[in-house]
Structures are given as structure tokens and as C-alpha cells.
């Protein structure tokens, strides 16, 4: 019996991307090391039962949740953005996880697994700590995290830009999550007017100075992609942070192979069409010429900045202290 679980938490909107990532884990052979649990929020169990039969793998399970367990109380000032309220569900998840699982790897649905993540799955996070990857503030102190609003990081208890982590890929032991997950939710409810990144804000506050870091390869998000650092980082998990997802429109940063993955997924699981829409190819690519023109202008305008970022990333990879490489 395995003691490790890779966990997704999704509503209907992210059911298809989460399933794709879970199937990629299976193709990577992660089922030898961990079971895969997809917690679904307010999704008809007949749908997930059918998906489980279609996948037909004993290591993949769907577990229903109800949004009543984590939606903030009435009157909470909740900043609406591209992050779904379902993201808060992970903070109260520990009682729902079967008791045999002592080690948890949490994964957002808007990822694709493109390399071997077994070192991440096998790492044992010490009590009271969380394993995560840096966010974007360390490479750009003037980005949205530091500037929306001014003082955002200070409002989290004084988190330094170098220490701020992205919450899309995390690992922890269940005893830690049992205490710190509800604490993070409580912090969010008390500070919702300043915790603009919802669960990510709350987790950074709750785990301030209690973070072990993994290599950017395990959470290769937009700040790395915009610096064209894939060859430097050699990503294992691509995280499509931001509003523009590869199933919605073409992007200079996320190539067509990612788009095709979602097209193929829908052809394999017809029932997902009720929850998830992939833009038709001609519409998906419609803005590509303008996007590439805008990107070329950005590269010319920010050439020095991008060179500095790439140098910082290379130095971080060479000299950073990583619990998992």
C-alpha cells in the first residue's frame, strides 16, 4: 500500500486539464510511487464514474467534494480574477484524504507533466515545512505581486520577494497540512481584502520562513517562459499561469503541442465537452501573428532586462539550495 498521493482539486471548469495532467503522471510511471486523487467540487458523480472507467487505471480515483466546505463566509471581500474559488478547497482537504497517505503532492490543474518528477514525489518534507518553487517576484520586484497593491508582500507578514512561492505545485506531509491548511484558510478570511492571490497569499503567510524549495523545473511558470529559459531550466512540469491558457489561444510562450494535448483529450473523453471547451484551431491561432509581433517588440524593448533575468535563472540553478533538483 502506497503512502504517497498526488492530489488535484478541481471544479468542472478545470476537470479536463486536471485529468490530462493525471494521465501524464500515469504515463510517467508515477503510479509506482504514488496514487493519484482528483477531488472534484460540485461535479456529478456519474460523470467522474464514467471518466474513471474510461481511464481504467487502479491508481487514479475521483473523490467528490462540496463547495460548502470551503467557500468564504458571506461578506468576505473576495477578489475575483482568473483564480477559481475552488483553489481554497485544498486548504481544508486533509480530513478527506484516506489515512494511508502520509505524503501529499498537490498539483494545479493548469499544468502539463513533461518530464520525470519522481524525485519530487519521493522527497519527504519535514514536519512543519512546505516544499514549493519560487514565484515571479524574485525576478521582477515590480511585477503584479509586488505592485497590486503596493505593499502586497508586506501584508503577508513581510515575505521577501526571493521567498515568495507559487502555490501551483506543492508537497507536504499530512500532519503539517492538518494544522496549517485550516490556518491558511483562516488567514485568508481575516485578510481577504489584502490577500489578492487567495490561497497562494494565505499559504505564503502561513508558511513564512518555513519553505523548502525545489528547482524551477518542477514549476516552470510564465515568468520563466517569458524569459525563454526552457533550455536553461529543462522543465518537468509546465505551469500555465495567468489568464491565457494554451487551450484558449495561441501564445509565443506555449507551443501548439500543448494545445493539441487538450484536443486529443476531448476526443478520448467525449463527456468532457459539457465542462470544457478548446478553441477551434482557426480561432486559437487567429491572433498569433499579432501576438508574435507584440512579442518581438517586447523582446527588443526589454532585451537587457531579459538577459539579466536569464543570467539570474542560470545562476540560481547552478548555485541555489534545492531540496529537490
Give the SSE order as H and E letters.
Answer: EHEHEEEHEHHEHHEHHEHHHH
State the helicity in percent bands: 25-40%
CATH-defined architecture of the largest domain: Alpha-Beta Complex
SS element count, helices: 13
**Whole-angstrom Rg:** 19 Å
What's the CATH H-level superfamily name of the largest domain? Spore Coat Polysaccharide Biosynthesis Protein SpsA, Chain A
Low-confidence runs of at least 5 consecutive residues = none
Strand order of the largest sheet: 3-2-1-4-7-6-8
> How many domains in all?
2
The number of distinct β-strands equals 9
Distance between the termini: 27 Å
Highlighted features:
two-stranded antiparallel sheet; 325 residues; Spore Coat Polysaccharide Biosynthesis Protein SpsA, Chain A; alpha/beta; 2 domains; 15% strand
Offer a concise description of the structure.
The protein has 325 residues and is α/β, with parallel strands linked by helices. Helices cover 36% and strands 15% of the residues. The strands form 2 sheets. The chain has a 7-stranded mixed β-sheet with strand order 3-2-1-4-7-6-8, with helices on both faces.
Amino acid at each position: 500500500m502506497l503512502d504517497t498521493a498526488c492530489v488535484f482539486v478541481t471544479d468542472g471548469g478545470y476537470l479536463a486539464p486536471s485529468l490530462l495532467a493525471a494521465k501524464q503522471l500515469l504515463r510517467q510511471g508515477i503510479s509506482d510511487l504514488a496514487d493519484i486523487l482528483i477531488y472534484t467540487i460540485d461535479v456529478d458523480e456519474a460523470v467522474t464514474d464514467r471518466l474513471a472507467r474510461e481511464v481504467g487505471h487502479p491508481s487514479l480515483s475521483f473523490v467528490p467534494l462540496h463547495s460548502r466546505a470551503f467557500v468564504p463566509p458571506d461578506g468576505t471581500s473576495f477578489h475575483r480574477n482568473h483564480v477559481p474559488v475552488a483553489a481554497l478547497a485544498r486548504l481544508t482537504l486533509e480530513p478527506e484524504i484516506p489515512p494511508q497517505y502520509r505524503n501529499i503532492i498537490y498539483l494545479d490543474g493548469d499544468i502539463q507533466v513533461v518530464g520525470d518528477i519522481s524525485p519530487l514525489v519521493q522527497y519527504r518534507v519535514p514536519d512543519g515545512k512546505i516544499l514549493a518553487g519560487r514565484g515571479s517576484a524574485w525576478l521582477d520586484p515590480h511585477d503584479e505581486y509586488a505592485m497590486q497593491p503596493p505593499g502586497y508582500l508586506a501584508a503577508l507578514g513581510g515575505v521577501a520577494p526571493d521567498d515568495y512561492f507559487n502555490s501551483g505545485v506543492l508537497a507536504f506531509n499530512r500532519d503539517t497540512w492538518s494544522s496549517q491548511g485550516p490556518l491558511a484558510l483562516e488567514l485568508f478570511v481575516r485578510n481577504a481584502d489584502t490577500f489578492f492571490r487567495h490561497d497562494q497569499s494565505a499559504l505564503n503567510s502561513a508558511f513564512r520562513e518555513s519553505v523548502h524549495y525545489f528547482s524551477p523545473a518542477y514549476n516552470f511558470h510564465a515568468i520563466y517562459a517569458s524569459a525563454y529559459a526552457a533550455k536553461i531550466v529543462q522543465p518537468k512540469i509546465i505551469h500555465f499561469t495567468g489568464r491565457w491558457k494554451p487551450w484558449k489561444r495561441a501564445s509565443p510562450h506555449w507551443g501548439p503541442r500543448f494545445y493539441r494535448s487538450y484536443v486529443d483529450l476531448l476526443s478520448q473523453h467525449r463527456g468532457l465537452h459539457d465542462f470544457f471547451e478548446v478553441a477551434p484551431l482557426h480561432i486559437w491561432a487567429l491572433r498569433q501573428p499579432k501576438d508574435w509581433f507584440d512579442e518581438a517588440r517586447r523582446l527588443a524593448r526589454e532585451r537587457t532586462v531579459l538577459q539579466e533575468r536569464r543570467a539570474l535563472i542560470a545562476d540560481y540553478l547552478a548555485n541555489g539550495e534545492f531540496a529537490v533538483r
